[in-house]
Specification:
- The chain has 106 residues and is α+β, with helices and mostly antiparallel strands.
- It has helices at residues 23-34, 47-52, 91-105; strands at residues 15-19, 40-46, 58-66, 72-80.
- A four-stranded mixed sheet has the order 1-4-3-2.
- A hairpin with a 5-residue loop joins strand 3 (58-66) and strand 4.
- It is globular, with a radius of gyration of 17 Å.
- InterPro entries: Glyas_Bleomycin-R_OHBP_Dase (IPR029068).
Length: 106
């Protein structure tokens, strides 16, 4: 991925979605961080949602915590397909790691 050289002048956002591996632990963390309770929690399952993420279908649990500036932090735990824990590594790092593993096993 190449970094953009032309600013897009983003000045506002309504929501920031964060994919998490443990929704309950993440809710506890963000409650402690912000001092706020979730304003919404639930589950969602659908083909259109999956397709929007490049999947056939998906099922997830979510919680939203709103800040004073109206920014919603959406915590999302994919249940189907089960998300892969990255421990802070980006997808490019995982792809390189995976290619190295395949080369070693050949």
């Amino acid at each position: 991925m190449t970094a953009a050289t032309t600013p897009v002048n983003l000045t506002r956002a309504a929501h920031v979605g964060i994919s998490v591996s443990d929704l309950d632990a993440s809710i506890a963390f963000y409650k402690a961080l912000t001092g706020r309770e979730p304003v919404a929690e639930g589950t969602m399952s659908s083909v259109p949602l999956g397709k929007s993420q490049g999947l056939l279908t998906s099922k997830l649990r979510y919680a939203t915590i709103n800040l004073d500036n109206s920014l919603g932090i959406d915590l999302i735990q994919f249940q189907e397909p089960v998300g892969e824990r990255t421990n802070g590594r980006g997808s490019a790092t995982r792809a390189r790691s995976s290619r190295r593993s395949r080369r070693r096993s050949s």
